[in-house]
Amino acid sequence: MNEFRGPEPIETANLIRRALADFARRMRSLRPDHEISTSKLSLLGRLVRAGRPMTATELAALERLQPQSLTRIIADLEADGLIERKPRESDRRQLDIAITPAGAEMIRVHAHARNVWLADAMEKKLTPAERAILVLAAELLDRMADHESGALSAEPMRAAPAASSDGH
Predict the structure, then answer these.
(1) Is the entire prediction scored with pTM above 0.85?
(2) Residues with Cβ < 8 Å from 73, sequence gap 6 or more?
(3) Is 80 exceeded by the pLDDT of residue 11?
(4) More confident residue, 63 or 7
(5) Which domain holds residue 122?
(6) Among 107, 104, 86, 108, which residue's Cα sits nearest to residue 96?
(7) Is 98 within a domain?
């Protein structure tokens, strides 16, 4: 008796990567035109989700940014009044970076339109069981985002059908 094993891992990876790229493009298209970059929004969102001030070292590691890039982002966000830097209570040599009420409001406004679209699409296009699967998928994708791997291989995906390795 043959056991169904599903697609090969590389084929699954290709499907997920393409779907996430398409989905990310859709989410970006719903973003209000604004002067704030995606990397700045990501850093603000990280501070909101953390629920506490963080050091630049913590933020750089979590956002996978080089210190030089993070320094510019922090300077810009501080100049715009979206974050503030304060000496850490336990070690005055370290600076804590905290989101300001204006920064938290910016995140709320930027997320709102995308959340409304997504909730509507899920309600109209998916069954309750499919929505539950998406909740699980979101948790799994978050977990996978923390996976550290070696250098990426430039070798083409041999297991994936040629039509699905379209490079996006």
Answers:
(1) no
(2) 37, 39, 40, 43, 65
(3) yes
(4) 63
(5) 35-145
(6) 86
(7) yes
26 inside domain: no
| Distance separating alpha carbons of residues 35 and 110, to the nearest angstrom | 12
Residue 46 lies in a domain: yes
Domains identified in the chain, total number:
1
Assigned token pair, 104 = 């938290």
- Of residues 52, 65, 64, the one with CA closest to residue 146: 64
Q: Which two tokens stand for residue 68?
A: 């030089």
Tokens of 85: 């830097």
* Residue 149 token pair: 């791997």
Q: How do residues 56-85 score in pLDDT, each as one tens digit?
A: 989 998 888 888 889 999 999 999 999 999
Q: Which two tokens stand for residue 24?
A: 């990310």
Distance from C-alpha of 116 to C-alpha of 122, rounded to nearest angstrom: 10
Euclidean distance between CA atoms 42 and 48, whole angstroms: 10
12 found inside a domain: no
Q: Which of these, 70, 72, 100, lies nearest to 85 by C-alpha position?
A: 100
CATH number at residue 121: 1.10.10.10
